[in-house]
Amino acid sequence: FMQSIFNCCLINIKDMLDNGTVIKKSYDPISGYYIVVDHNNGFRTYYGHFNKPAYVEIGDTVLKGEVVGQIGMTGLATGPHVHFEIHVDGVKRDPCEFMNCYSVVVY
Q: How many Cβ atoms sit within 10 Å of the Cβ of residue 44?
């Protein structure tokens, strides 16, 4: 059952703030597989706990609506999800300040 969840659920940047450039793609014991996208306007977004390495590479441009990976539970996670953060000028902010939290779509 868990494997079918991972295979069907893709991380889509539909509601991302803007297009951007992948500046980090890595793995660590807490975040699991993750990426960081720089939006070239003071904003950076973070996506963590992918099921496997993201589909994009460092230096790639990502666009709104682009699928970048699969939902997972790598790292320190108790269930499949995407950890999402917004950083503005290096400071972590509540994503709900910038987007409608009820409209985020994960495929």
A: 22
What are the E-state strand segments in 29-79? 32-38, 43-50, 61-62, 67-70
Helix (H) or strand (E) holding 8, with range, is: helix 2-8
pTM: 0.81
pLDDT tens-digit readout, 70-103 = 889 999 999 988 888 999 999 999 887 877 666 5
* 41: nearest Cα among 68, 18, 62: 18
Could you tell me the two tokens for 67? 């699928």
Which helix (H) or strand (E) segment holds residue 28: the answer is strand 20-28
Question: Encoding tokens for residue 40?
Answer: 């070239």
